[in-house]
Amino acid sequence: MDQAAAGDGAFDVEAFVRGLDAILARSGAPAARDFVREALDEAVRLGDRGARLTILNEQMGLLRSIGRHDEGVAAARAGIALALDMGLEGSEPHAVTLINAATSLRAAGLADEARAVYEAALRAAGSALAPGDRRIAALRNNLAILLGDQGDHEGAHRELSTALASLEHGADAVPDPATDPDVATTLVNLSHAARALGRDAEADSHALRALAVFRAGGHGTDPHAAAALAGLGQSRLAAGDAAGAVDAYREALAIVEASYGTESDAHAVTAANLADAEAALARRDGRAAASSPAPASPSAPRPDLTGLELSRAFWDAHGPELLARFPALRGRVAAGLVGHGSECYGFDDAVSRDHDFGPGFCLWLTADDHAAWGVQLQDAYDALPTQFLGYGPRLATERASGAGRRVGVFEIGAFFEGITGHPAAPGADRPHEWLALEEATLAAATNGAVFADPRGAFSGVRNGFRRMPADVRLALIGRRLAMASQAGQYNVPRMLSRGDGEAAWLAAAEFVNAAASLVFLLGGPTAVGYLPYYKWRFAALRDLASRPGARLPEVPSLLADVTRDASAACVGADPGARESLAVAIDRTCALIAGELRAQGLSASTDTFLEHQRAHVQARIGDDWLRAL
């Protein structure tokens, strides 16, 4: 815990730190968010600027760990401004604040701003901190992550090697490097940098050593241990050891869940990696069980596969061999199936196979790699077999051909720009751009499956679109509450009383759309994704309701009742259907209001959702969004 400055006695900083530590130990980071926010409000009320700076520094790390990046950015900027306002420039508290702020900005995807703050932090640390202060090593670690994000893996490796040498052999080296968690964390990051450079043996060596340090020091549940395990899982999966990958990812996921909860970015990414490893293990076991010395009969029926399953099988059969012809791209290409079409959601069936279906997968390259190798790789991809497992050739509609093609070789930024209009997710400081993105568009950018991504470049951009800023999410929740209330609770009965069944039917449809959106927004995009295109909405709702631990699992069936009852009540004028429709709408709204209270977005028991909107809006930090 970094204390940037001591309070003047008006606010009990030591009691705050003890309380925060207790909550983190007992319940994890998500439970501490309100405690820190209340402490900050109290410090502001008391006018204790030193305590406020300490709390802001704690808040930055906490919010970053649970994926609340827009709030973390606000805390970072407030901390920097407060330190300067207090006349602390060049001091230790100023250096610590800059380090924490830069890391929050980096995590939020504001790379340029983060880089500038890191440079200021290095200057401040050079004069304010002792040469062997381990916070300088932490600064180098975080700067290395930023360099890696920007593709400078050699620079990242250099910074991390310097940090490790300082921790192990510097003038103020740590007492016992074999048990020190900072040494272990640096080794984890060095493992990632080595892997990005294609040095897999070195990467595994660093990861295994990091785990040994974590365990020897009693830090086996440290979140950084999860990162080391995830790195080993990635390596083992690439080497064909699916069982070893599953074991590593499962252990990593348990640590992440205990530390950050199930709605964090880390949990979503680790869970997805575990699912990929489990699928690879299942395919391996399935192939082993199905193996037979007898050749398959030419008349054997083709397997019944979804588009995603067919794509993955086609990749497994031809992808690694294809990439092996391009040694310069070793460890640099991502593969999978993401984007438009029912097959990317897993909702396709036999009816779907008449268009935009067949063997194929996507290969995603960075801009530099695509410029150098994109044409040659596309030519090699085009030479792959057009038929596979009884399927093919791939049927592509006109809109899914040419510039709109859905499989083949893509530059990462251009791929996402083709779907969203943006080569990467807008920053948290550009809420207007987020609001211009429809949920169905975000769903298309974040659906599907990634079969391989050794550099993490594609997944990094994809996950950026999953991390909707918290204030934007709250603003959208407020909008949906208003529409659900106005359309369903107010206008459906009003239009029916006027005898305007058609208007009542349209109001019921607006209610269903707003409530469906709320199911996804309250579930959290990083955990459940986004509401897709209208014709797949109920399929997505049913799928979501079937997941263990799903939020609002009753709502999808209630919305099905609304659509059924609306036809009879609005068009058929059935009095019994009118009553059933009202019950389904009221029950849906009561469940949504209860979920708002469960998430701490409202303390009101009012089931009229328009009244709940004000409670949600009050929690929006951005003035512009709150005023919309």
UniProtKB/TrEMBL annotation:
Alphabetized Pfam families for the sequence: DUF4037, TPR_12
Highest taxon in the source lineage: Bacteria
Residue ranges annotated for the DUF4037 domain, each copy included: 434-536
InterPro entries with a match to the protein in the record: DUF4037, TPR-like_helical_dom_sf
Residue ranges crossing the lipid bilayer per the database entry: none
Signal peptide: none
Protein name, UniProt field: DUF4037 domain-containing protein
Originating organism: Demequina sediminis
